[in-house]
Amino acid sequence: MSTLTVELEGGKLAFRPGEELRGRASWTLDADPESVEVRVFWRTEGKGTQDTEIVDTVVFQSPGRQDKRDFKLRLPDGPYSFAGKLIAILWSAEVVAEPGSEAGRQDIVVSPTGKPIEPPALPETPK
To answer: N or C: which end of the chain has fewer CB within 10 A?
Structure first.
């Protein structure tokens, strides 16, 4: 069974928009890979259609069956991590080896506050 992991520098999991994401990808694969890459992306979860967008990728040259590589990725200005009642925007960094369907993922937060943005509470209606 293959193992793929993403470790972020200093164990940091919260980032500001535009910040650099640094870490190390490591993998042990059952077969020689055609390619290995690390990518940072956001996705939506909740009601409605799920959206996903890869915002930056690092492709490793001549990856071996077992290897470790450092990476740097630049986070965009948005969208911010968001935790609403109907929808959430979640960010992750992941390492993927092709061919195959396995990946190693580390969830992160991207926002100016270091926490997912929450919608303001609605005012109470008079009874």
So the answer is: C
Are the C-beta atoms of 106 and 93 separated by less than 8 Å?
yes
What global pTM score does this model have?
Answer: 0.90
Encoded amino acid at 31, one letter: A
Residue 125 in any domain: the answer is no
User: Would you list the DSSP string of 53-72?
Assistant: EEEEEEEESS--SEEEEEEE
- For 122, residues 6+ apart whose C-beta sits below 8 A from its C-beta are none
**Terminal C-alpha separation, the chain:** 60
Sign of the four-CA dihedral 74, 76, 82, 87: negative
What is the residue whose two structure tokens read 């077969």? 31
Residues in the chain: 127
99-124 pLDDT, tens digit each? 988 899 999 999 999 999 998 877 78
Range of the domain at 27: 3-110
- How far, in Å, CA of 109 to CA of 92, rounded? 8
